[in-house]
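Posting for a labmate who doesn't have an account.
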Amino acid sequence: MNPLRPRARPVRLVTALLNEGWRDIDELVHGSALPRRSVEELLAELGDDLEHRGDLVRLREGSAARAAELAGLPAEPPGDLLDRIRSHIEGVPAPLPALDHVQATPETVLRRARWLDEEYDLRQARLLFLGDHDLTSLAVRALRPDAGLTVVDVDDRVLEYLDDLSDSSIRTVHTDLRFGLPLAVAGSADVVFSDPPYTQAGMALFAARGVECLVRQRESRLLLAYGYSERHPTLGRQVQRELLSLGLTFEAIIPDFHRYTGAQAVGSAADLYVCQPTARASGKGARKGKAEQAIYTRGPRSVEANQAPRPLRDALAAIAAEGGRAVEQRDPDWTRPRAVSEGVAIAVDLTGDPGPWLLRVLLAVNADRVAALVPNAHPDLTNARAQAALIDLIEPKYRLRLLRSTPDNSHAVVVAEARPATEADSGVHAVWTRAHARLGNVWPRAGADIADLRLIDLPRHRIAGVRHQLDPR
């Protein structure tokens, strides 16, 4: 492996200079802006493809093709790529204000893809997107069909849309970064790109998770979009301090790189932060809990939001306790297994659920009874079709009762009663009750693309696909 990869621009500059004629080390350092030792490492890799004359060096005749292969060249974008990006954006699921979705312009998405391809060797660099409602991954896929791309997102709709448009050539993984990162993507990427919520807490959390995703090498990079109003420079300073506290250094800040439809409070623009992790970089300081759920500017988990009022939580506990059961109240975190004592019912406040939490909590918790408090307008409850889909998806594990407008007109309670496995569905029941296990360990037929993921890490449509494969009724 070339020690300079995945960064491509400086390698391309050096090889271009060597192909032009005799050069000394000083010229190569000056022309590429690489440290002298990095230039020396690159020359060592070129080895016999170089010829030497004293302190000068150049490519041997006939070696240009190998050097070009080593450095790679930026891909020429298809002539219709901008139109394709526009079409993709027109069909993307509607932005969710509760997740601070603001759509980047098609020109910005194309600019991102081309910049990534120019800066990094996407033939081999593993590129991970933390959130991708803007569909930048699709533009990169169009430029580099062989690039290794992963998208991690909380929005199941976006993940399904990406799967459909990419023919599943982009790996899609579900998580809510507020509760952690799937082990399968930790330490898996050379380059991480994210356009986080622009709150101080949101930027800090997404950056910390991005650091966790990176392979620990000097060439790994974390790329962040961030904008703040020139009227409030203190906000920019606070975010930059958060990034520095994570052990990141700013390799570059490219002003007004991103443009948006909306976001007028920050001038409908944001800068591109190119961050290099130092030896002290760590995302482990990202805390989990109620405070860290408040990372957005709007919605039930905005920085101003709180948990459900005490009377609602008491009413939830009373429903969970029906029949005289003891009740344990829990937070929404479904990412780690937690034992439940026999005969104890679990009550979970999911009033901040943007949509995907309910299903994952029901998959993650193994109890005789689970009662979840959700908004009455929760996506899984809004109509008969949505309710039937939820009931069918969780049926191998729980029987559901959907108590609408309970305990008040703005909320609902979903009550899940455990059902025993029958001989007919024992296979799916075994997987559904081990949602924290790697799928390859509990389902030998799991495909290679999901074998290292847990059931709770899959996008919702892929959970439904696993259900159908295990129990094709």
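Reply:
Got it, the structure tokens are right above this. Residues 196 and 206 are 6 Å apart (CA to CA).
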